[in-house]
Amino acid sequence: xxxxxxxxxxxxxxxxxxxxxxxxxxxxxxxxxxxxxxxxxxxxxxxxxxxxxxxxxxxxxxxxxxxxxxxxxxxxxxxxxxxxxxxxxxxxxxxxxxxxxxxxxxxxxxxxxxxxxxxxxxxxxxxxxxxxxxxxxxxxxxxxxxxxxxxxxxxxxxxxxxxxxxxxxxxxxxxxxxxxxxxxxxxxxxxxxxxxxxxxxxxxxxxxxxxxxxxxxxxxxxxxxxxxxxxxxxxxxxxxxxxxxxxxxxxxxxxxxxxxxxxxxxxxxxxxxxxxxxxxxxxxxxxxxxxxxxxxxxxxxxxxxxxxxxxxxxxxxxxxxxxxxxxxxxxxxxxxxxxxxxxxxxxxxxxxxxxxxxxxxxxxxxxxxxxxxxxxxxxxxxxxxxxxxxxxxxxxxxxxxxxxxxxxxxxxxxxxxxxxxxxxxxxxxxxxxxxxxxxxxxxxxxxxxxxxxxxxxxxxxxxxxxxxxxxxxxxxxxxxxxxxxxxxxxxxxxxxxxxxxxxxxxxxxxxxx
Length: 513
Ligand code: XMP
What we know:
Low-confidence stretches: 335-341, 348-354
Oligomer: single chain
Bound molecules: xanthosine-5'-monophosphate
Largest sheet: 9 strands, mixed
Number of helices: 14
């Protein structure tokens, strides 16, 4: 088993990025709530611990905290932002409210003789985001970095293996942050370079096999990247004990149901038990007249689970349900520590409280999308599947603003197929994270063939993003947009207007609902 760095979560926004940067340094990393830190240290015997940022003030009585024994276990600890303040507070330093908030890219002056700053420039740009500051570090600590407004931007008690930084080395705005984290895990914690994506695949397949034993497993397969990778991983672990259920909820892209069946169904490259459930009418019935986005999501999420439960009962004695949930789904559903709910992603927040399985297995829960794709390549999944653009679990329901009807589904399917075809034909899809059409519930007046029309407006969207947590609207060539527009209004009945969405995330989200 690879050496582990334990990331102790205090509710910061960037916690998973910390784990990810550590993994990028070829060291395995896991996140654990601060409430379970001691248990996790005892169980996992980590080579090092990182305390994350968080929204609280370390000196207030109700703030998340940790006993000082954590710093006395002989395991090196790096505190970041709130974690740095907490470490100082718990060990007898002084943390106070800063007169002025320090926020954004900031020049930091570092002592390069620190193990943490080996190879870092003496003056380097770091990302700061804090209201409190360390007025005086704890006894035994020496200050190793400062900024114009922050006397303790980093400090350490090297003899005890305790390090802290007020800034965020995990975000890309901190220009040499990845190097600092690599220094911590390799120079301070003494970790080797023994973790790679293929070891993640191997370790996870082995862990799945051990966990599942001779139990039966049901996999929720959507044909998207995440559930496909999860399914192939499970097939590798337990072979025919796995049954993949593909629910066609009538909210898929044009021809998608048949495409998924041709890849995962009988005669395809994988030796899976595959069941396709055609549940279009059932979903349309449940969604009839429902306009509120969160209600739509919950209905679809719940109905999905019900369909799976029914299939499971037919198979009999199914112990485990596998889902392709990935990390951004978890964060945005408000389950990644103390972050706010943005949307209830189906697979996570939409899950009913009572589920008729022994356990839900989510092997990709800690990974970002590009890490999932990498795992897919390691598993030998064909590139056209691995690099497919993401498609949300609730499908076109979140791309149809307001109530869903079969007619509206047809409109958005056709418009979306045309748009994607034109973007791809022009080669404009390279570098895009997602590009799709949505149906607004706006109708407006137009004129076609000398006649007045009163029809729907389709919205086209294209975004560039690395991790889907933030995204920028892409400036697609005008000719591509013009060609897609002309084809959509000519070929898709009941559309007389096409709009282009120029909004990034934030303030918008990628999907419309
Ligand atoms: P948003 O709209 O939240 O989307 O900015 C971020 C990424 O997540 C996808 N998405 C979902 N994926 N179930 C999923 O599996 C969902 O409920 C869901 N909602 C959004 C979205 O397509 C984008 O890639």
